Amino acid sequence: MTQTRAYGSWPSPIDAELAATHDGAPAYVGFVGAETWWTEPRPTEAGRRALVRRLPDGEERTVLPAPWNVRSRVVEYGGRPWAGAEGPAGPLVVFVDFADQRLYAYEPDAPGDEGPRPLTPVSGTGGGLRWADPVLRPERGEVWCVLEEFTGEAPTDVRRVIAAVPLDGSAAGDRGAVRELSDGRHRFVTGPRLSPDGTRAAWIAWDHPRMPWDGTELTLADVRDDGTFAAARTFAGGPDESVAQVEWAPDGRLLFSSDRSGWWNLYRADPEAEAADAWPLCPREEEFAGPLWQIGLNWFAPLESGLIAVVHGKGATALGILDPETGEVVDSAGPWTEWASTVAAHGSRVVGVAASPRSAYEVVELDTCTGHARVVGAAHDDPVDPTYYPEPQIRTFYGPAGREIHAHIYPPHHPGHTAPDDELPPYVVWAHGGPTSRAPLVLDLAIAYFTSRGIGVAEVNYGGSTGYGRAYRDRLREQWGIADVEDCAAVALGLADEGTADRARLAIRGGSAGGWTTAVSLTGTDVYACGTIIYPVLDLAAFASGETHDLESRYLDSLVGRLDEVPGRYAERSPALHAELITAPFLLLQGLDDVVCPPAQCERFLARTEGRGVPHAYIAFEGEGHGFRRADTMIRALEAELSLYAQVFRIDLAGGVPILELGK
Q1: Terminal CA-to-CA distance of the chain, rounded, Å?
Q2: How many CB atoms lie within 10 A of CB 98?
Q3: pLDDT at residue 23 above 60?
Q4: How confident is the model over 612-622, as a mean pLDDT?
Q5: Which of 62, 305, 317, 555 could form a disulfide with 313 if both were Cys (CB 3.0 to 4.6 A apart)?
Q6: ω before 598 within 30° of 0 (cis)?
Q7: Which stretches within 545-630 are classed as H helix?
Q8: 536-580 pLDDT per residue, tens
Q9: Can you list the positions of beta strands (E) in 114-228?
Q10: 109 falls in which pLDDT band (50, 70, 90)?
Q11: What's the CA angle centered on 235, arms 232 and 236, to 5 degrees?
Q12: Are the C-beta atoms of 313 and 467 separated by less than 8 Å?
């Protein structure tokens, strides 16, 4: 029997604890011998990432117990933290532990296992050292990877090179035992990809002020017999061409993704030829790559047969098998509608991480011989009746000058409740982070936490988002704080104008760059009744003057303009300098260990709002950085956000949700 209750007051089995404990996704899939390995989140284990393997009998086994946390901090957002190979005593895995950022070697099946052994010095020996994107070279007794070394006190006092670390542990107490392979002339590098015969290395490099989606260089170097690199040369890419990934085909030709056409497409080239001679394998107005936020992300993997597994699409992604000779792509069958930026191949098998609006991310294997795809790890298991899940809609709205805005709309949904006919629902606009990123259309219990109670959610892939080609990405160039804000407002008002949402009960929320968009929206528009600002950028000049990490220290050059050329623009757009303009209640959430968007920005923002009579709350979380990972943090954050909406929208919540105390 369907009951009638006001929007927002519906009882729901999806509580904050359920949403928090199911947060996150598997990542960094790979093969060790014939076994599939990956990392996965453990919110209830202090937010660590565990390394997991699938044994031949199908058992999923956690390789390392808590508190081991397989996660790198290179460029702060990290990168691929592990590599493995089959050895005489079974699997040999090299990984980065988050706590000390050292590289460790571990042979879990070796007789007399004594646990992981360190390969690199403790942090602080010869400067802070971090490692990522390892490639095992057991025949040389080494692992080759990215070395990030801090040389001073400032977060931008840093250098990055490709380095070789001995597997015998001799570098654990001696930084001098680490061999540097690349010449250090680029600020940022990925790990090397070695040609099938081992005589060449390829990697991606770039420099300030470019971000990796602006312009990168595909770099090649010969590998000498002694394991050193000859002089490197740029093969492809440049200031206005983004090469996002490079691999080698089995026949020794280069495979790389480039957006030279306006879309990240795949190319094949003879390494002895010129980049201009590179052949597009499947020219389409689709993306075959994405933004390189983490070192070692990958969207394609060559198979031994010469075929290529590809993650591709426009606005959403599929896993396909590309025949480079014909340009034909055959997509895998199955219920999954979104594939993450991690894929690996072994023989005729391909593994990736996939999800859908009805299932969370899980590890999926495709047998390219039979075309059969199956879940092999981190399988989705409905924690509640799936009739409580939202039923999203893919929508296109139109903003200023008629520009298209892509969005996912999640109307309120409950199997046993409906609202009075004369009531329109409240809606919360979700602005994604990045901002050079996008919101995928997948099951997210944090969204279901709201929709199952009768609060709609609108995820906006505003101009500047990825997945829709370079021109769409470039809509945010020097327009951050304008185009994103306008696009979110256009979606919110569009929902109200068409009678989908209550105009008086619109809210906005976002984290990181989405927190910026939320704060600017609250200081610069009257669209929203309240907002939730999560680990945000609030002060542009401070952000560009050293109050962030190295990777994004020049990001604002493209998003806003150079600080020395347009200082007025920085001041005009910064919410921290205009906090007195906020009249809507807000919730501010911040991690105290955040070095990307440090809490000092929040503190200055709050200082300007004190005593102005605007209801607000500030919750700071110890032990959390940029992006919340601990279950207890996420529970408190979700419950506080729901309480904010309940108070502002005058909702009588069902169930025991703690009341957020709003000060003035």
Answers
A1: 43
A2: 17
A3: yes
A4: 96
A5: 317
A6: no
A7: 556-559, 567-573, 599-609
A8: 999 999 999 999 999 999 999 999 999 999 999 999 999 999 999
A9: 117-118, 129-137, 142-150, 158-166, 179-180, 188-189, 193-194, 200-206, 217-222
A10: very high
A11: 135
A12: yes
